[in-house]
Amino acid sequence: MALTYSVGSLVTARGREWVVLPESEPDLLVLRPLGGSDDDIAAVFPAFEEVKGAEFAPPEPGDLGDQRAAGLLRTALRVGFRSGAGPFRSLAGIAVEPRAYQLVPLLMALRQKTVRMLISDDVGIGKTIEAGLIASELLAQGEATGLAVLCSPALAEQWQQELRTKFAIDAELVLASTVSRLERGLDLGQSLFDKYPNVVVSTDFIKSTRHRDDFVRHCPDLVIVDEAHTCVAADDTSASAQNQLRYELLRRVAEDATRHLILVTATPHSGKESAFRNLLGLVKPELASVDLETDAGRRLLAQHFVARKRADVRQYLTKEDGLGDDSLAERTAFPSDRYFKDETYKLSPEYRALLDDAIAYASERVEAADSRGRREARIAWWSAIALLRSLVSSPRAAAQTLRTRSAAAVAASAEEADRLGAPLTSDAADSDALEGMDVAPGAETEENAGSRLAELARRAEQLEGPDGDLKLKALIKHLKALLADGHNPIVFCRYIPTAEYLAEQLGNTNADGNKKRGPLGAKAVVKAVTGTLSPQQRVERIEQLAAEAGEDAAARRVLIATDCLSEGVNLQHHFDAVVHYDLAWNPTRHDQREGRVDRYGQKRDQVRVITLYGEDNGIDGKVLEVLIKKHRQIKKDLGISVSVPDEMSTGVTDAIVEWLLLRGRQGEQEALFESDAFQQSFADLEKDWNSAAEREKASRSRFAQRSIHPEEVAREVASIREALGGAGEIHTFVRESLAALNAVIRDSGEDFTAEVGGTPAGLRDALAAVVGADTIEKDRPIPFRSDPAIGRGEAALVRTDPVVGALAAHVLNAALDTQADGARPARRCGVITTDAVATRTTLLLVRYRFHLTLPSRSGEKQLVAEDARLLAFQGSPKNAVWLPQEEAVALLEATASDNTDAHFGERTMTRILGQLDEVSSHLEAYGEELAAELDASHRRVRAASGEIVRGLSVTAQKPADVLGAYVYLPATPADSAAGSPASAGVSA
């Protein structure tokens, strides 16, 4: 007859541990893997498959380890936990170790029955991680059953990768390019969003009326919106049709009051108060109109809004935050500053003549079109701007523009001309406008102008190279200086032809693929990434560049990129300097470019930024003076970037172009600044920008994150570290385990490298799956970094790193298997003679398992979680004197002061293990204490909502498992309880 297992008990089957679910029958067990999800539930017939109670075999007294054995086994066990017992259910199972400040949005979210959050932390702080933490926790607790991430198509693959690799959430991409394939697999009448519970969706694809209704009807109960500011518009501006569609989509998604909604943006204001209010209205309707000048209004907002600058979190959980000491202090290594240098260049005489002739042509066209109607005037205007911007960019961009028909030329009205011409020539801050907008615009509007433009194009082509193109010559000079200083720069261009031209001129291969010596030297690897590549191909090109540069200290990486990379792709691990080869006409674009490298994980304390501008081209100097420098000053004063309203920026640049075309010639800059049109445009810009900056400054002060006090974060951080281990414990574990397994360790400051060629085959096989077979086969050093923000091929000294996980699994399995081949750093028993104790002291490593009943919106959820604790007592088990927890943990640091005879050690261990039944009542009582603490912790985190804690319970499963037992003997034989003095002999 099959053995009956109670609901909630743990069993071993199919090589892993399972929890028995209530649906089980005596002859059919319904099981969920320990730490797994409902998707992993399986049915097992005990009559046909072996099922056993999940218990450890008792330790073997003859299998003795040294002084490190207990600590290594404890850490190996805790690293393997995938189901934390604390209130943060998901933290044990994700592959990222969050910074303490990144827990704040999670704590805020768990206090809400329906999560509604606006996360507006500064660029590079980690908003994706913060949103992912909330999502993984809601899914793990059963508060959400599915997830949709709405983002621009350029960021979709990155979101998919982040969710999969860091949070173990597999999400399907729903893009214009994938939807047909996905729909082919649907059943009749089935929605895409019913079949795939987790999706990453292109906002631009799903916002259309054709797809929107299906999405809203079948939308998951958890939605994350990236770059949420692009989905709203100010009330006093005519929002684009795209914005209106995006806003209507989000408004309908937010209408369901039971849906969790997380909005993510670094720029919630975008220069307009009404746009900010519309954004808040999506989070909670009353926030759209509440008086934020009152305490009640600010308290309401504080429950849902978090917005912090880097300075707020660079040093966190310190005395300055109101804590009693700095024991939990955390320093996050953001670059301290950006070093700006504006460098000029002058046009060559031939380039100057070409620009003058092009300006003359454009001026004639604009003047002639003015008399022919508004449509013709707007077409001519956009053609003129396209021509000027391309000429200022590069000879190749100019030639292509001169030979290409203007996109606005087919417009049937002035409004259509603006809609077609603006995206290719302006620099809107809207990130959705980045994709596909780096193609060179056209300038040709009339058939009879072809020969004149063709002649200008021919002249432009002849100027390619550093002799005719002094802008390129200046770039080469500044790049050489950056490379000599050890920097790896990104050069940002406006147009694809310019990026391709620079890659050809700077690289070590010709356009036909033949080798040549480029001006930056043989060690410089140069590649271009533009909108001609898909988002995935862009990432692959960057990784290819990094791989070609390799580990050679003399090698340098130079990436030429258009603004298709100015948002989304994080480049801080490979690059540390930015060159603005083409000035953007909206300074927010510069900030976006610089933000790709100036973010958490950048190893340089200072990011170098060089801005190239033409001294005599009539445009660059004025854009730099009026827009770029003003933007920098505001950021320096406030510590954050404040977006300039697109229409204000456009007004100023229009005034510059108008002056240049109709009145300007070189040397007449004063006339520009004194002109009425410019004065008015600049005054409007100054007024709106200063107003936006003041609002942002007041907002950061008034709405500073105060709903979660640092003391609350510190308490939870301490609890997490106690249960899962801190960075110091992991550092010690990895280093000592690898050394004991015969790896070659080489120090590099706080960090180190390990060559694992001499370690057991089982470990090498496990590591090969993580770091790559080539690294293991060629015995390349694996770098271990204390900073969790690591580059490709490196391992972070945190418990969630895959390399650390593989090492911990090997150490734990070897400890449990006394017949394992090779070195076994951790053992389940040990007898150590030490000066650290005055009387015989026994340390027990105990695994506790807890049954949690967590109430959720979908009903109660039954979970089982694990914890590992150290308990120590003096004397014999029958008359045990139990030590405080901190003294038990301190025994891990005890060092052997003498050898212990192996036979004596085995006899001592046999006696202790035979008497452990005497301490079982204490172990059970301690388990009850832990259960009560966990219950209080869950209630504390969810304290703001009584409904969330009603029905919550935590109980300890009995008996607890004694995984390891270690006896510490005093070095002097004065204590008779030791039974026999230590004697010289074989080291244990």
Q: What is the topological layout?
A:
Blueprint (H helix, E strand, L loop, with lengths): L9 E4 L2 E5 L8 E5 L8 E3 L7 E2 L10 E2 L3 H11 L23 H8 L5 E4 L7 H15 L5 E5 L1 H15 L4 E3 L4 H6 L7 H4 L2 E5 H4 L2 H9 L4 E4 L15 H15 L4 E5 L8 H11 L11 H8 L2 E2 L3 H4 L1 E2 L13 E2 L5 E9 L3 H22 L3 H20 L1 H9 L10 H12 L24 H12 L8 H15 L4 E4 L3 H11 L17 E6 L5 H15 L6 E6 L15 E4 L6 H9 L10 E9 L5 H19 L7 H17 L6 H6 L1 H27 L7 H15 L2 H14 L3 E5 L2 E5 L5 H11 L1 H5 L4 E4 L9 E2 L5 H15 L12 E6 L6 E14 L6 E14 L6 E2 L2 H6 L5 E3 L3 H13 L5 H22 L4 H4 L3 E4 L4 E10 L18
Parallel strand pairs: 6-26, 7-12, 7-13, 8-10, 8-11, 9-10, 11-12, 16-21, 17-19, 17-20, 18-19, 20-21, 24-25, 26-32
Antiparallel strand pairs: 1-2, 1-5, 2-3, 3-4, 14-15, 22-23, 23-24, 26-30, 27-28, 27-31, 27-32, 28-29
Short recap of the structure:
With 988 residues, the chain is of the alpha/beta class. The protein contains 34 helices and 32 strands.
Defining key terms:
988 residues, alpha/beta, eight-stranded mixed sheet, seven-stranded parallel sheet, 34 helices, 32 strands, disordered C terminus
Description of the structure:
- The chain is of the alpha/beta class and 988 residues long.
- It is 41% helix and 16% strand.
- It has 34 helices and 32 strands.
- The strands form 6 sheets. Strands 6, 26, 27, 28, 29, 30, 31 and 32 form an 8-stranded mixed beta sheet that branches. It has a 7-stranded parallel beta sheet with strand order 9-10-8-11-12-7-13. Strands 16-21-20-17-19-18 form a 6-stranded parallel beta sheet, with helices on both faces.
- Strand 27 (841-854) and strand 28 (861-874) form a beta hairpin.
- Helix 22 packs antiparallel against helix 23 (646-662) and helix 23 runs antiparallel to helix 25 (676-702).
- The longest helix is centred in the last third of the chain and has 27 residues, at 676-702.
